[in-house]
């Protein structure tokens, strides 16, 4: 007898858009409604590859730009067997950043095309829903200072935002843009409705392949 699968739900957006806050609230709300749900985040800094990525982000090591891009992708691929297993067990996965961040951040660097950046992630489990938390950089700035990690500057974040906008033109991905300038609770209730719907509509569908 086949069990209904969980949904693969991704939250994307620039720094301080509220991704982590909303992922946690969503998982809690789904669980409270009796749904099996778990949070994941990329990069997953706990694996060996993840530790290499983490020291790169903390500027403790320097890696060549193509190399770090491929490591971010490898960090997703190494988690794919676990993700598939959980989805097949009926667990909904709420993921803080995915391949879209991978492409948006690397392609914001000079001389990287969107196409080259997408390639290593082609064939990953395709999210049933990708919510983009849209936030104006000036509002993001009011949410506190940038940290000290790599990429945490407003000029770089503006380029990342432009790359996300290009990625969102792709109709093969189920994008939903969420106005993240509203209160945490208002954003949460929008997200919850979208997710309850997608969990119901994807439970009998096979897991898709990203960008294929
Ligand atoms: P991200 O994961 O996108 O970087 P976070 O969820 O860590 O963002 O939130 C960044 C900061 O902004 C945190 O201090 C958080 O409490 C605050 N924050 C998140 N959502 C909102 C919101 N809708 N309105 C105001 N502040 C918010
Ligand atoms: P946080 O852990 O604060 O989300 O920061 N990034 C992320 C990439 O450059 N490529 C990727 O594939 C992913 C998933 C975005 C993580 C930083 O790493 C960037 C910010």
TrEMBL record:
Gene3D superfamilies: P-loop containing nucleotide triphosphate hydrolases. It catalyses: dTMP + ATP = dTDP + ADP. It comes from Hemibagrus wyckioides. This is Thymidylate kinase. The keyword Nucleus does not apply. Keywords: ATP-binding, Kinase, Nucleotide biosynthesis, Nucleotide-binding, Transferase. Coiled coil: none annotated. It holds the Pfam family Thymidylate_kin. Its EC number is 2.7.4.9. GO terms for biological process: dTDP biosynthetic process; dTTP biosynthetic process; dUDP biosynthetic process. It comes from the Eukaryota. HAMAP family: Thymidylate_kinase. Pathway: Pyrimidine metabolism; dTTP biosynthesis. GO terms for cellular component: cytosol; mitochondrion; nucleus.
